[in-house]
Design goal:
Distance between the termini: 35 Å
Order of helices and strands: EEHEHHEHHEHHEHHHEHEEEEEH
Shape: elongated
Structural class: alpha/beta
Largest sheet: 6 strands, parallel
Oligomer: single chain
């Protein structure tokens, strides 16, 4: 997949079949659009092109958007779209100035002059340009003038799936990672750096890697204990992960820590990818470290059963 990080870098693309959107999560609804995009490109021996926007438009346009949590960092979205088999990704820097572009300017400058679009594939009721004025009806009525065809994914196809990035965020923030994963079509993941902790887990036989996510807008699921897969060094490990304030050890800061099964490596400052499989339980305050240790043994047994390992 070839990536353009700047509009002015774009070179004309042979028979460009284009779609656009934020595609946060690259969930199964998005995947339906991308499958159609690739089908059309293949039929015409053209190239599939996705235009996406970063930062997320809500982070730029809404004053109270600082608490918006995203399903993907941009790097994660890149990886997911490459897995989908897209030929070209165009990252449009979303600014307040860009948000004032009319749909006509967007069409002329990017779709026509830069990309040389031959066909545009969009989801039902997708709009672009200032005040969302670039509608399917406007595009089709001006198709001859613009020099490209427009295809809209039918409403019933979108409604049948009934999935949105907002629904997935709500599921994950409530701890229902199974529902979130069902909508995503894969396990929800995050990438984090291992930092030094207080080593209490090591003292009770459950050493943990304390994790920090660098992107403050990256969504972290609800507090609790989860069965997870951990990717490190090209290998996958089973594990269980806790998110919360660790009330049993008088914690006062929300942390994320993972106990990796059958693992004995020093990995401070290394980067791990965690895939959430299922929430085992809520975070609980225990009266002693022995009681905590006993519960962790039960949690581990549950995680191992869930993973079939």
């Amino acid at each position: 997949m070839q990536v353009y990080h700047d509009i002015e870098e774009i070179q004309p693309i042979d028979y460009a079949v284009v779609t656009s959107g934020t595609f946060d999560g690259v969930h199964i609804g998005h995947q339906k659009i991308l499958e159609r995009l690739k089908e059309v490109a293949l039929r015409h021996r053209g190239k599939s092109v996705l235009i996406t926007y970063w930062p997320h438009p809500r982070l730029v346009l809404q004053a109270n958007s600082s608490d918006l949590k995203l399903l993907n960092t941009f790097e994660e979205k890149l990886d997911l779209l490459e897995e989908q088999g897209i030929d070209y990704l165009i990252k449009v820097p979303f600014t307040k100035e860009f948000s004032l572009w009319s749909s006509e300017h967007f069409i002329r400058h990017i779709l026509i002059n830069k990309i040389k679009t031959k066909k545009l594939v969009i989801g039902y009721d997708h709009r672009f340009g200032k005040n969302r004025e670039g509608s399917f009806e406007h595009l089709t009525s001006n198709a001859e003038k613009y020099g490209f065809e427009v295809e809209e994914i039918p409403r019933q196809d979108i409604d049948e799936i009934g999935i949105s990035s907002t629904k997935i965020r709500k599921a994950l923030l409530s701890g229902d990672v199974e529902l979130g994963n069902e909508y995503l079509g894969r396990a929800f993941g995050l990438t984090a750096t291992v930092v030094e902790g207080n080593k209490i887990g090591r003292k009770i036989g459950f050493p943990t890697a304390n994790l920090v996510v660098q992107d403050r807008h990256k969504l972290i699921p609800a507090d609790g204990v989860y069965a997870v897969n951990v990717m490190f060094g090209g290998r996958r490990y089973g594990g269980m992960l806790n998110i919360g304030f660790r009330p049993s050890v008088a914690g006062d800061t929300r942390v994320m820590e993972v106990h990796i099964f059958d693992f004995d490596m020093m990995i401070y400052n290394e980067v791990l990818t965690v895939k959430f499989l299922r929430r085992i339980r809520e975070e609980i305050k225990f009266d002693s470290l022995e009681a905590l240790k006993a519960q962790l043994s039960k949690d581990k047994a549950m995680a191992i059963r869930l993973m079939g390992i």
